[in-house]
Design goal:
- It contains 1 helix and 11 strands, in the order E-E-E-H-E-E-E-E-E-E-E-E.
- The chain is mainly beta and about 120 residues long.
- The chain has 2 domains: about 40 residues, N-terminal domain of TfIIb (Single Sheet), CATH 2.20.25; about 55 residues, SH3 type barrels (Roll), CATH 2.30.30.
- The strands form 4 sheets. A 3-stranded antiparallel β-sheet has the order 1-2-3, with no helix packed on it. Strands 7-4-11 form a 3-stranded antiparallel β-sheet, with no helix packed on it.
- A hairpin with a 6-residue loop joins strand 8 and strand 9.
- Belongs to the YjdM family.
- Pfam families: YjdM (PF03831), Zn_Ribbon_YjdM (PF08274).
- This is Alkylphosphonate utilization protein.
- InterPro entries: YjdM, YjdM_C, YjdM_N.
Length: about 120
C-alpha cells in the first residue's frame, strides 16, 4: 500500500507538506491551508480586519491604537499616528505601509483601527 501523495505548498512550492488534522502544513514557510479546499480559494477568501472588526481594504487610511516600538531602533510609533494608503499582505505583519518620519514598515492589523 502506498502513502497518499500530498500537494506541494502553494506559497513556496516545497514538497515537504504534512497533514495536521484537517489542515496541510508546509514546514519550510509555515503556510497552512485546508486539505479539502483548493489553496487559491482559501487565499481569495481572506478578509483583513482591524482591532475593532472593521474590514480593511488596500488604500485605506488607519490609525495606530497602541505605542509600537520599532525593532532595532529606539524610536516609537505613537498612539494616534495616522497611516495613509495601506497595502494588505499575507503574513504575521499583514499591513505594508509608509509612515511619515519613519519610512516603510509592516504593521499587525490588531494594533490599528480604520480611520
Amino acid at each position: 500500500m502506498t502513502a497518499p501523495t500530498l500537494p506541494p505548498c502553494p506559497v513556496c512550492q516545497a514538497d515537504y507538506t504534512y497533514e495536521d488534522g484537517t489542515q496541510l502544513v508546509c514546514p519550510s514557510c509555515g503556510h497552512e491551508w485546508s486539505a479539502g479546499a483548493p489553496a487559491d480559494a482559501a487565499e481569495a477568501a481572506r478578509v483583513w480586519k482591524d482591532a475593532h472588526g472593521n474590514v480593511l481594504q488596500d488604500g485605506d487610511s488607519v490609525t495606530v491604537i497602541k505605542d509600537l516600538k520599532i525593532k532595532g531602533s529606539s524610536a516609537v510609533v505613537k498612539v494616534g499616528t495616522k497611516v495613509k494608503n495601506i497595502r494588505l499582505i499575507d503574513g504575521d505583519h499583514d499591513i505594508d505601509c509608509k509612515i511619515d518620519g519613519f519610512g516603510p514598515m509592516q504593521l499587525k492589523s490588531e494594533y490599528i483601527k480604520k480611520a
